[in-house]
Design a protein that fits this description.
Largest sheet of chain A: 5 strands, mixed
Number of strands of chain B: 16
Number of helices of chain A: 7
Number of helices of chain B: 25
Distance between the termini of chain B: 66 Å
Strand order of the largest sheet of chain A: 2-1-5-3-4
Shape of chain B: globular
Structural class of chain B: alpha/beta
Helix content of chain A: 10-25%
Order of helices and strands of chain A: EEHEEEHHEEHEEHHEH
Shape of chain A: globular
Strand content of chain A: 15-25%
Oligomer: heterodimer
Number of strands of chain A: 10
Chain lengths: 231, 602
């Protein structure tokens, strides 16, 4: 099939058939903020930061495919405020202590906080009691920082396709956990992949720390999304 | 008792090592062993060749599954708003006193567990509880004493049922104390008909013409969302797939609704015939009825009805000699409100966590096991039966512009005659209040917690999709009730029932509830009301499924319709009210030091 024509905030854009709004926007040099999205993984739509307006309805841009003639609203005041609110919800829902986090500077949540000029969350902190699991051979799970994006659940499997990470409980009690037997089979590469998939500092590879010095990290000098907007 | 390994092996092989039957596997293992322990999780995962987290994720998602024993007898006492209105607190205390442990716990000897549960579909006969799958209604302190004595004496729970409800509730296969409370019969659901006549009428037409007839009737889904049924069937029929499925959504979990319970009790043959009609229309040979765990007490009876219908060739092979095959199986749920959302229901029926799916694809395109699936409400499928018999035009003569036919309403709360009422769409709230004996109401909750709470000035509004939409739940709130308590109960419910998948619903509802509590405690300013309203909008706008898109409604609609109630609670002359309680903060250290704090100096 040929190219799909659509608009984002009035700008004419082109998409390939099957592309989601987030992917197509990226190809057109427009940044739609995402957190749970990871290129190559099946989109999950857990964070909702990429919420855009299509035909008067709010949709997650990471899960919605582009269709011919689609009119997408992206950078409106309402949507930008919703996004900021979601980032703030994530900060109050967990226990995030950026200065002591190994992922600081490489953390997408932190970077989004900066991009959206979050000074202090509008919501009161919930201070949940969360646990840390350092008993696994290759990785540490620091649930205080977890944003339940499910990137690890979707992206890390054993050679025969079994999920190593999974979700338990529901509602505000949802947490990431692992199949302990299967984590024993994790290689260094898998551990690195799990850490790289994690947008925050909830999954850390053991026995290596601060390999990239502060100042040379992903978001130390340029805000998240700028690589797309410059393109 | 058989060993854990043997039990798990036997159960898993009963379901042919099929991972999509995980709901049933966990249910059966739990009923044999009392819980599904880590060891059982490992065994199930091993036999199904999957990760342990897949199994654990499912167990921990559903309210009635447990990894630790909850007692030989497990009491689930409903904690919905209407239960509270009907004196739940005294019943809970009676249980605690008689059993000797508090709610949320099991006695140290492991005999009796006391647990809260969300609405169990008995709002017209509260307080009510489910004990080992058996329903106990209209509980009194005396009844509680008797029940607990029976449990302590080791009696079978079904022998503790001393009275029976009306109609089929008395049949040998149900024998429940549940009452139907049918207060008003209408022409669609409760008019008599000959079993099998509707499917015969459908089979005499082409499937496309069956869909056309439903379109002429302008039938809209009776679950609450109101999607046009004919269109849904047409999409499903046209979607490509090696197979098609019909799923009946019998997971009514909206607090205050119980209409499907009465249909399942009194009109199951009509419902199953409606599923067969839907199957013929969309090109499906298999149907699944997803039955909420709370209605487990109806399962044997429904299985018998299915058998009867097979014997009468209303279901089965070559129905009515017309070459159409269709059969139905029952899929039990395990306690999760969100499974009423059609894609979450499909996930659950496939043996997974009941998390709604991203759309597209829609269930009519890729539903159960990836096949095109139509998911319809219990009442909708019954309406289809009547439409086959009386015609679409007959049906469309009743109702309003956007809402045709009749609607079954479950009425509960502060009224003389709680129960179910089949009324024509377009009936005003005033007319309904007159009918049910609730004229002095100060508020009416239309459509359950996720619907709208209206006050007296809106009682002239009509119940229909054009105005006040409802899946059937109507809760009447009398003049002496504290509306805040009801709103708070509803928010508790949503916090508990959110699946936790998306941020706004998972975190947002907790935040909304806390803000509401701040206002209720009198430590808030006018600004807090505005913030609360704004935050409701954020959760509604950004949540993934209908649960989060409507969960702020108890707060949102009461701020709109009962703003004075909020304003009376806040301090108007200030922008900021401290929520810091100095006395409470220093209480412990003062106690240790033996000092009395002088707070007035600070």
């Amino acid at each position: 099939m040929s190219t799909i024509n659509f608009t984002i905030d009035g700008k004419s854009c082109k998409a390939k058939p099957g592309q989601t709004i987030v992917e197509a926007a990226k190809d057109n040099g427009i940044y739609i903020p995402t957190l749970c999205h990871f290129e190559g993984l099946k989109p999950a739509g857990t964070c909702r930061i990429c919420t855009v307006k299509v035909g008067g309805r709010n949709m997650a841009a990471c899960t919605t495919p582009v269709t011919e003639g689609m009119v997408v609203e992206n950078k409106t005041a309402d949507l930008e405020d919703y996004r900021k609110a979601i980032i703030e919800m994530l900060f109050v829902e967990g226990n995030h202590m950026c200065p002591t986090c190994e992922k600081s500077g490489n953390c997408e949540l932190q970077a989004l906080g900066y991009r959206y000029l979050m000074m202090a969350p509008r919501f009161p902190f919930l201070f949940p009691k969360r646990t840390l699991d350092a008993s696994l051979p290759k990785i540490v799970i620091e649930r205080n920082r977890c944003v339940q994006c499910l990137r690890c659940v979707r992206g890390v499997t054993t050679a025969d396709g079994k999920r190593i990470f999974g979700v338990v409980n529901r509602g505000g009690h949802v947490e990431i956990t692992v199949d302990k037997d299967l984590t024993a089979t994790m290689t260094d590469e898998m551990a690195q992949k799990a850490m790289d998939l994690c947008p925050v500092g909830a999954i850390l590879k053991k026995e290596v720390g601060f390999a990239i010095p502060i100042g040379k990290r992903k978001f130390d000098s340029k805000p998240i999304g700028s690589e797309i907007e410059k393109a | 008792m058989a060993s854990l390994d043997a039990v798990v092996k036997q159960v898993v092989s009963k379901y042919k090592n099929d991972k999509t039957r995980l709901m049933d596997i966990i249910t059966d293992v739990q009923s044999e062993l009392g819980c599904v322990s880590d060891e059982a999780v490992s065994q199930i995962a091993k036999l199904l060749d999957c990760s342990k987290v897949d199994v654990e994720g499912v167990i921990t998602f559903y309210h009635f599954f447990t990894k630790t024993p909850r007692g030989k007898y497990t009491v689930y006492l409903n904690n919905s708003a209407v239960a509270n209105m009907k004196g739940r607190a005294a019943i809970a205390k009676a249980f605690e006193d008689a059993v000797g442990c508090s709610f949320g716990r099991t006695t140290s000897d492991g005999i009796i567990g006391l647990y809260d549960t969300s609405c169990i579909g008995m709002n017209d006969q509260e307080p009510a509880a489910i004990i080992n799958g058996i329903v106990f209604t209209n509980l009194t302190q005396d009844k509680v004493k008797e029940i607990v004595a029976g449990m302590k004496a080791g009696k079978d729970v079904k022998d503790l049922v001393k009275e029976y409800g009306d109609g089929a509730n008395q049949s040998d296969l149900i024998r429940a104390m549940v009452k139907n409370n049918i207060m008003r019969k209408g022409p669609v659901l409760f008019a008599p008909y000959d079993q099998g006549s509707a499917i015969k009428a459908a089979l005499s037409k082409k499937p496309e013409d069956v869909i056309e007839e439903v379109k002429i009737a302008n039938l809209r889904g009776r679950g609450g969302a109101g999607f046009p049924t004919g269109m849904k069937w047409e999409f499903c029929r046209k979607a490509e797939g090696a197979k098609h499925y019909v799923i009946c959504n019998a997971d009514e979990g909206e607090p205050g609704t119980f209409k499907d319970r009465v249909i399942l009790t009194e009109l199951p043959h009509m419902l199953f015939e409606g599923m067969a009609i839907a199957g013929y229309a969309v090109g499906a040979n298999e149907g699944i009825i997803y039955l909420r765990a709370e209605y487990l007490y109806l399962k044997k009876y429904l299985e018998k009805v299915l058998e009867d219908l097979r014997a009468k060739n209303i279901l089965g092979k070559n129905i009515a000699g017309k070459g159409f095959d269709f059969d139905i199986r029952i899929q039990m749920g395990a306690g999760a409100y969100v499974c009423g959302e059609e894609s979450a229901l499909i996930e659950s029926a496939e043996g997974k966590r009941g998390e709604p799916r991203n759309r597209p694809p829609f269930p009519v395109q890729k539903g159960y096991l990836g096949y095109p699936t139509t998911v319809n409400n219990v009442e909708t499928l019954c309406c289809a039966v009547r439409i086959m018999l009386e015609g679409g035009e007959w049906f469309a003569k009743m109702g309003t512009a956007q809402s045709k036919g009749t609607k079954l309403l479950s009425v509960s709360g502060d009224c003389q005659n709680p129960g179910i009422y089949e009324v024509e769409f377009g009936t005003t709230v005033n007319t309904l209040l007159e009918m049910v004996g609730g004229r002095n109401a100060k508020a009416v909750q239309v459509g359950g917690p996720s619907g709208t709470c209206i006050g007296k000035k809106d009682f002239g509004r009509r119940i229909c999709f054009d105005d006040l939409a409802t899946g059937g739940s109507i809760i009447i709130i009398g003049p002496d009730r504290d509306l805040f308590e009801i709103v708070h109960n509803f928010m508790d419910f949503f916090v508990e029932e959110s699946c936790g998948w998306c941020v706004p619903c998972r975190a947002g509802n907790v935040i909304l509830k806390q803000k509401l509590e701040k206002i209720m405690s009198g430590k808030a300013s006018t600004k807090d009301i505005q913030e609360l309203e704004d935050w409701c909008k954020i959760v509604k706008a950004t949540s993934r499924c209908g649960l989060g898109q409507t969960s702020p409604n108890p707060i949102y609609t009461t701020i709109q319709n009962f703003r004075e109630m909020y304003e009376a609670k806040v301090k108007k002359d200030t922008d900021y009210v401290s929520t810091f309680d100095l006395l409470a903060a220093v209480e412990e250290s003062c106690k240790a030091a033996g000092r009395i704090p002088k707070v007035e100096e600070h």
